[in-house]
């Protein structure tokens, strides 16, 4: 017996619940209903993974509602890799479509539009948590070393470390997310406005229409724990210069001061060092010594 | 949390051997909630005596670029042997996306040097979808060929021999051979070993009517590199007519009895206590682990198989 027809029929059953294709492969027709063990296991594994990856969403809408929505997501976007780590990358976008769909009659279920932003925050937190460990963290010691070597450290090219994740959300959503995440009370969310769903480059964020009220949130990991905070406009400008391939520190400082001449650059720079947010490639300096 | 730095074992077990865990006793599935308890354990002094505590992890749970999850595992590896147990390799079918998967497994193996590496004789991927559970293969020549190819690719990719685990059977599919024949031929053709899950075997015997004792008698001892033990639950609808491999309950008496019989046939082998749901306090799992260790000690004491096993491993 060839394997492929069996696998095709089994996969079809797992995706649709229609077991008729398995008739030819099961020895005892009375045992066909036992196939549900495998389908239940598939859905349970995926739904549990989504619940683990989107814990604040689950907390907001409750286990049963989350499970129902998650099952629909699994139908549309089953895992593609042989792991459930990080499963749900498209879940925030899916939720947006799902909420729009159920707003149309005759659906009676309503979900908070804030759920989409909460899902994006959940996934950003997860992305930061699982990101690569920093290997070239810029520290006060490295700066001292550069200064002692006669280098102007403000001319050094610096990048954001890989755990830094930036995204825009509706005002108040971060507080709501933190409240749910830490069980410290739920801040009231502000009404949803047209916030784009993807993670953004900060350059885009700084050019964003100021008429649309949004918060720019930064996640980063330090000492194994993920941190989160809203960025001010000059902080956004500073980070924008250092994003991607990185930038010269002085230009980052200038960009921040252009937004707010009273901005305390040294204060924020110290905080960046303490939080191990910045990276520097010391190789070119070592070569010159 | 305070990090505890302790001396790393220097047992130097035969890591490339088919049966690589001669010094391992009973082990536990590693759970994040037990990390502090594990790190607080005194370091074992006795090694290479067949009673070392060890831990098994699901390999794919560590497919991350960095962060605390890997650091936790590093802290455990400082003092204990590890076993990497794959659940997403889909050895039985759809090998096209295997290289990327294997690359991640190999990177983990290179860093953590697990003593044991295992996977399942099942499929879980088809048509670009991963079905996130252990799907049964029909025991046919075509399926056997596909499984052997999958094992070959996996072993070649990671540069190590693996063990493959017998599945839990809930119903019978069309087959051309029984399960021991299927697994033994897969092992002999691919050069892999076998991981015998005693709970899976017990449930298969209850669900499909096979004779577990007869099954074990068909497995050559030299192929067996690890044994799994776990608890089960009755199906919510069908009750005792269908027993589910839940890993959510204590190990049942008949499963312990079957372990004792398996050890009498195979000799001393690393025995793992699996618990993946309804997880009890660490001390409770350690009591189950101690029961398993008792069976291993009894096996070694009565039959002196452990010595023979070490020779075999060389």
TrEMBL record, chain A:
Alphabetical UniProt keywords: DNA-binding
Gene3D superfamilies: DUF2063
Listed Pfam families: DUF2063 (PF09836)
Residue ranges occupied by any Putative DNA-binding domain in the UniProt entry: 8-95
InterPro entries in UniProt: DUF2063, DUF2063_N_sf
GO molecular function, one term: DNA binding
Name recorded for this polypeptide: Putative DNA-binding domain-containing protein
Origin organism lineage: Bacteria, Pseudomonadati, Pseudomonadota, Gammaproteobacteria, Oceanospirillales
TrEMBL record, chain B:
Protein name, per record: Uncharacterized protein
The organism of origin for this protein: Amphritea atlantica
């Amino acid at each position: 017996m060839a394997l492929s027809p069996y696998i095709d029929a089994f996969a079809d059953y797992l995706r649709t619940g229609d077991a008729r294709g398995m008739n030819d492969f099961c020895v005892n027709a009375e045992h066909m209903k036992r196939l549900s063990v495998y389908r239940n296991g598939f859905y349970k594994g995926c739904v549990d993974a989504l619940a683990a990856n989107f814990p604040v969403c689950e907390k907001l809408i409750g286990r049963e509602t989350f499970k129902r929505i998650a099952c629909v997501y699994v139908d549309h976007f089953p895992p593609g890799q042989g792991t459930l780590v990080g499963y749900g990358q498209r879940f925030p976008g899916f939720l947006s479509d799902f909420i729009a769909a159920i707003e149309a009659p005759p659906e009676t279920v309503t979900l908070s539009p804030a759920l989409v932003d909460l899902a994006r925050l959940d996934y950003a937190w997860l992305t930061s948590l699982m990101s690569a460990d920093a290997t070239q963290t810029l520290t006060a010691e490295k700066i001292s070393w550069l200064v002692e070597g006669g280098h102007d450290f403000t001319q050094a090219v610096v990048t954001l470390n890989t755990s830094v994740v930036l995204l825009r959300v509706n005002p108040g959503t971060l507080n709501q997310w933190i409240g749910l995440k830490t069980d410290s009370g739920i801040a009231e969310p502000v009404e949803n406005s047209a916030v784009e769903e993807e993670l953004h480059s900060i350059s885009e964020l700084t050019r964003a229409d100021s008429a649309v009220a949004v918060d720019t949130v930064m996640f980063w990991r330090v000492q194994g724990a993920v941190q989160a905070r809203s960025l001010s406009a000059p902080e956004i400008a500073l980070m924008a210069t250092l994003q991607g391939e990185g930038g010269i520190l002085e230009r980052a400082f200038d960009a921040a001061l252009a937004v707010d001449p009273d901005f305390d650059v040294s204060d924020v720079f110290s905080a960046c060092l303490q939080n191990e947010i910045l990276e520097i490639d010391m190789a070119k300096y070592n070569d010159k010594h | 949390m305070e990090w505890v730095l302790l001396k790393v074992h220097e047992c130097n077990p035969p890591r490339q051997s088919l049966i690589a865990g001669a010094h391992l006793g009973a082990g536990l599935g590693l759970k994040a909630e037990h990390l502090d308890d594990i790190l607080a354990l005194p370091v074992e002094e006795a090694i290479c005596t067949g009673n070392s505590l060890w831990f098994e992890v699901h390999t794919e749970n560590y497919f991350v670029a960095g962060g605390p999850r890997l650091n936790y595992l590093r802290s455990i590896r400082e003092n204990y042997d590890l076993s990497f147990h794959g659940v997403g390799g889909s050895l039985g079918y759809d090998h096209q996306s295997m290289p990327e998967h294997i690359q991640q497994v190999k990177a983990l193996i290179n860093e953590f040097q697990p003593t044991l590496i295992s996977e399942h004789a099942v499929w879980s991927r088809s048509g670009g979808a991963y079905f996130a559970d252990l799907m049964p293969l029909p025991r046919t020549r075509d399926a056997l060929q596909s499984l052997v190819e999958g094992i070959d690719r996996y072993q070649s990719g990671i540069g190590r021999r693996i063990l493959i685990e017998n599945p839990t059977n809930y119903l019978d599919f069309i087959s051309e051979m029984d399960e021991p024949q299927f697994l033994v031929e897969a092992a002999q053709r691919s050069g892999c070993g076998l991981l015998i899950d005693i709970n899976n075997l017990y449930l298969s015997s209850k669900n499909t009517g096979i004779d577990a004792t007869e099954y074990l008698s068909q497995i050559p001892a030299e192929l067996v590199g690890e044994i799994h033990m776990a608890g089960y639950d009755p199906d919510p609808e069908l009750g005792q007519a269908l027993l589910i491999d839940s890993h959510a309950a204590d190990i049942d008496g008949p499963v312990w009895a079957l372990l004792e019989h398996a050890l009498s046939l195979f000799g001393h082998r690393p025995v793992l206590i699996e618990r993946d749901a309804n997880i009890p306090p660490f001390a409770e799992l350690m009591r189950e682990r101690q029961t398993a260790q008792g069976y291993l000690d009894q096996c070694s004491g009565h039959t002196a198989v452990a010595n023979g096993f070490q020779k075999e491993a060389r």
